[in-house]
Amino acid sequence: MSASTPTADRHGASFASDVWVTFVRWTIKSVRNPFVLVVSLVQPIIFLVLFTQVFGGVATAALEGISYETYLVPAIVIQVALVAAATSGIGLVNDIENGMFEKTLVSPMNRTAVFLGKTLAEVVRIVVQVLTVLGLGVLLGAEIATGVPGAVVITAICVVFSVWFTAFSNVLAVLTRDEESTIIGANLLQLPLLFVSSAFLPLSALPDWIQTVAAFNPITYGVDAARAVMLGEDTMTVLEVTAFGGMWNTLVPALAVLFGLAIGCGTVAIYAIGRAASADVR
Asked: Is the model's pLDDT at 85 over the cut of 70?
């Protein structure tokens, strides 16, 4: 009798079923641990309430024809996606610590499907959180010029934006295999990236060096895209694009950057998981 490979023993299991199994497992974990869902919402909601109350009066005077609530909500929904994506790596570290990650590695599951299924589970959580913040923002006085379809598009932008940081936090988890190191690494980037972007104030009001850094900051492209849909107009702050008209002058280049980052970082994450498999499984 010839020795059979793990792949040959799968009896018809497919890429799609690997994605589905991984998605269901991580979704059940999220449902069973609502603490993570609630806590990852707390910081953005605090930012939304405090910033509108503390800076609303001053900032609205500096803005042209819109309230600070309307200006701030796109930044907060991107922050929600960022915080939710950061916790993805922490979940992977928990798997590593309790041995579930090693069990996945010795299984014949497709590594790309493992990453994709886990990312889709994070997407469900991000969609719920973004819609919650959009609803709260409207209650506080924010206006979505593009209406309900615009709210759906903003949520989709947050999902696309979240992929690169989800991949980054998973790479951190695989490399460090330590919860504290993963948390520190992810948190080390979150707030600095938010403040050196177009999130909270117009770039024209910030120092020149921040404007330069903002041009290379993914958060700038996520916030500008969400804000363009929120206002229904071109809001790109770091690129001069006039070929598409209106808010599409912001959406096309911003989404091109975000999709590129998602593909690049996602590829690195899949490679890291594959390398972990090669290193740990003999």
From this structure: yes
